[in-house]
Fold this protein.
Amino acid sequence: MPARSAFDELWGTSRGRKARAGFEPLAGWLAETPAGELERRQQAAETAFRTLGVTFNVYGGTEAAERIIPFDIVPRIFTAREWEQLSVGLEQRVRAINAFIDDVYGARRIIADGIVPADIILGNPQYCVQLAGTRPPHGVYAHICGIDMVRTGADEFFVLEDNARTPSGVSYMLENRDAMLRLCPELFGAFPVRAVDSYPELLRDTLQSLAPRGGRDPRCVLLTPGHYNSAFYEHSFLADNMGVELVEGSDLEVDDDIVWMRTTDGRVRVDIIYRRIDDFFLDPLVFNPSSMLGVPGLMAAYRAGNVTLANAPGTGIADDKAIYSYMPEIVRYYTGEEARLPNVETWRCREPGALAYTLDNLEKLVVKLVDGSGGYGMLVGPAASRKEIEAFRAALKAEPHRYISQPTLALSTVPTLTDAGIAPRHVDFRPFVLTGADGVTIVPGGLTRVALREGSLVVNSSQGGGTKDSFILSRDPGAPR
Amino acid sequence: MLSRTASNLYWIGRYMERAEFTVRLVEATIRLSSLSGDTRSQQAWRSALAVSGATAGFKQAGDTLSAFNARRYLTISEHNKGSIRSCLAAARDNARAARNALTREAWEAINRAWLGIRDRASPGGTQATLNLVETLKAESRGFEGALARMLRNDGYWFMRLGSVVERGDNTARLLDVKYYLLLPEGEEVGGTLDRDQWTTILQTVSARTAYRLIYRRGLKPWLIADLLIFRRELPRSLAASAEETVQLLGNLADRSGRQGEADRLARNRAAGLAGGTIDSLFQEGLHESLRRFIAENGAIDRAIARQFRFG
């Protein structure tokens, strides 16, 4: 079992005997604070989330299924040195992602140079052929990226997944921090934690910097699918904190390739749309004709260069899991440097050798749909039943090109409050990377997701995952002030 | 302000008002029916259903007319679009969509009211329903309080506008149905008087004390009509509702620098009520006048939706 040998963010490999250098105050805090007290604070946080309405809807659920994501009171901590390394790597990766998208919708050099096979890009369902030749304002496509990172050892960080479409979860980073400041102020005395509360402002500045043309004061809005969407709380939270309007598709109209929003005083022109709805629903005239969520004519306005969409349509090509397997080559190709953040070793089942290896080792591997997300369409071999494995074997043989496989990683653990007291649980980490006209910004923080079931490696909220606050330290113990 | 947000706020106002009115109607009807025998209890509930505009729906649902069934239909039924539960669900739905335009306090008041009725499977006995009524009245006062502390801007005015439009409609329907039942055609105005019945009307619009203070005499049907129609000092009277509609639309116009059809209709209606007397109204016919008010109110509602592009 990976759990036994996993690296622990607090204890390292000492199995609870000795805290990692600089983390002693957290070990002390855990030892001194009675479990009942931790439990009480955790409940206070969850009660606050519920009254605030920090909820998500489970897909297919009715109103009764409005839930809060479980919150864990024990934070996950990154040292200043770790964060420095991560953020340099994240910036490099996101620059490469934007260059890649620009290329595949433009000159397609990477295909011509034989780095990535043409069919994997042009034949990809995520590739928006309608957008070939369209360049967004400032040449930026993936303005907001959520890069999912995992850790397996003291110096071993991997990128598990790139989210370049409409990554969510940043509201939890902010709300979790708020709860921790209220409920565990002593931890902020013990650790020099960097603030995350500037995120909404940075996001607004990033979006404003992307306006199509100067002159007028650009008007930015956040487009939500509406209050039945699972991430609606986050949409309303961000709009509120950025001071922009939260709009639905029906609030917008396109006239002569200009986007307007309907207000009680008449029409107001819109320049930048932070859209939290998928490409497929954006514009019924171009994509899904039955979509009620989008805005007819929006794509024409976008192609005319009259409105900025963040993220740009078509960015899904960069976070497809088949493309993911080429990321080391993609980073090298566009930045001229080796990728600072390694990928998890990945077998592309479209290749006969990789398929054969995968089929022979199903009980050891994690198998994923190339276009799946949210923990759906995924096999975790070591935890799967015979029957599940056989079902995947059949699916793999039928459509090998739809799958990739990866080794089952021993994800790092963090002490977590469970029914049986404090116990290690596996985590991942999603930092949010912003790209504006003037470059890349990363708020020192992110969303730590934790698999609350013992031994589980699936951290998705739809699959019983919870969240933790993530502390980024401004200086490490022993380092000069 | 986004037109949709304005529309969400307006409907929060309408649904919260409707919910509160229905709460009072149920409370007053329970009182009335407990004072009378079976036949008259049935009649009390039949008229409550009529006031709530639920007669046809109730019949369609196929329930026999009993106090319990009527109470259930008016309070927790999901099939009745006008039940307290449905109103609170709709108010909360609108509140969720317009969350950013509400104060936290206002949102929590609506959310709490909804949570208070969401899981009710039965109205229970009379006492249980009265307890529910008490809780809901408290929640509704909480909402009014939260509203009173809101910034006086578009958001506040749209919500108030929804309340006063709904309020006028409710009072007119209450008076229309009850008068019709209590004074069958041919009977003299001022004939024998069913005190309990008339008290029910006053209780539904929380005006028992107001009546005594203003008229200082026993219950007279025409004075009750006068109070509910013409007395501007009674917040739930038609005159007060008409006047407040004009004011709220005026606030919005001051802000935007534009008036429209809704302003014009609202002003005409308020002027008509300000110049009217109960005698002239009885000459036109009470039922006809109330029907006219309800129709005008509907026209104002539609004009508001057009003017502010509710879409």
In short: Residues 151-311 of chain B form one domain. Chain B has a mean pLDDT of 91. Chain B touches chain A at residues 1-4, 6, 93, 96-97, 99-100, 104, 107-108, 111, 154, 252, 256, 258, 308-309, 311 (CB under 8 Å). Chain B is about 75% helix and 0% strand.
